[in-house]
Amino acid sequence: MNRRGLLRAAAGLWAATAGVSVIGGCAPGASRVAALRRIGYLSGNTQQSADKGSGPFRERLRELGHMEDRDISIVFKIADNVNERLAGYAAELVGMPVDVLLAVATSAQLAAKKATSTIPIVLVLSADPVGQGLVANLAHPGGNITGLVTGSLSVTGKQVELLKETVPGLARLAVIGNATNTTMTSLLPAVEDAARVMGMTVQAFPVSSPDELDSALDRIAAQRLDALLVLPALSLVRADDQIPAFANKVGLPQIYADIEFARAGGLLHYGANFAAQHRRAADYVDKILKGARPADLPIEQPTEFDLIVNPAAAKKLRLTIPDSVMRRATEFVP
């Protein structure tokens, strides 16, 4: 073969080899980056609350091998206590669509359920999912919803017990709750039942706005009640220290469902550990991403609880916290 023929043969061989290489490079899945799995994070709470809760959630996902921007992306929709935003936010997440939707607290959970019956929903900080119509029962939730409950019905009874233990002479208990939140409908009867067993009467103050809260605090002060229990109410206050400052000023011992109020000067907080709840929620998300069906995953009760005691508030109230309460505290607010 002459020189020209050799060049033609070499060129043909190069073209054939290049063609195989290009075709191989375009083969389905050979070099394509796998699509990220989307996790929606829907919350009606404040941005600060969402930041605190999502930290343990994201950390646990990393421990389980789900790396953000490599395997998963998390799409946050935070209503910042404006519940009217939740329906639209839920619709946006469903429209993307996300692969699984984490719904934090009752208002977001109701919005998520209304938005989809097919995308898996994981509940976290759920007070009463059966009573609120989210699932059929805890052991066999059915449908597309699973997750964790706060144990709020039993926890609320324990809050009443702790107040009575701290204030033995307690006879008349004031209860503040969010009238726009269906959680209060579930929790108030639990408060009344626990109080009745301990010989107490309950005066409920359902409020739906900061202005109504101001009025309720004035009425509580005027009625000279013995102690105060505050059900979930973060969306009602002008500042986290509003109710604690009022109660300490008028000499009213208090216990709170929201941990923020105890850390802002309130006397006591008792409830499920929110960080632990978010970590377990990540376990549920992991199982669902790996193929588990929500209907087959029982809804879990909490196993870790916080009892926060604020000695400075006790001092303002001229109240001695019993040793039996102090020994069980998981945190003391300085």
Characterization of this structure:
- There is one protein chain.
- By secondary structure, this protein is α/β, with parallel strands linked by helices.
- It contains twelve helices and twelve strands.
- The strands form two sheets. A seven-stranded mixed β-sheet has the order 7-6-8-9-10-11-12, with helices on both faces. A five-stranded parallel β-sheet has the order 2-1-3-4-5, sandwiched between helices.
- Helix 3 (86-95) crosses helix 4.
- It is elongated and about 60 Å long.
- The termini are far apart.
- The model is unreliable at 1-33 (pLDDT under 50).
Total DSSP E strands:
12
Largest sheet: 7 strands, mixed
The SSE order reads: HEHEHEHEEHEHEHEHEHEHEHHE
**Tally of helical segments:** 12
Strand neighbour order, sheet with most strands? 7-6-8-9-10-11-12
Distance between the termini: 94 Å
Would you tell me the structural class of the helices and strands? alpha/beta
Q: What is the CATH class name of the largest domain?
A: Alpha Beta
The poorly predicted ranges are 1-33
Global geometry: elongated
Q: What is the helix fraction of residues, given as a range? A: 40-55%
Identify the notable features of this structure and list them briefly.
disordered N terminus; Rossmann fold; alpha/beta; five-stranded parallel beta sheet; 12 helices; 334 residues
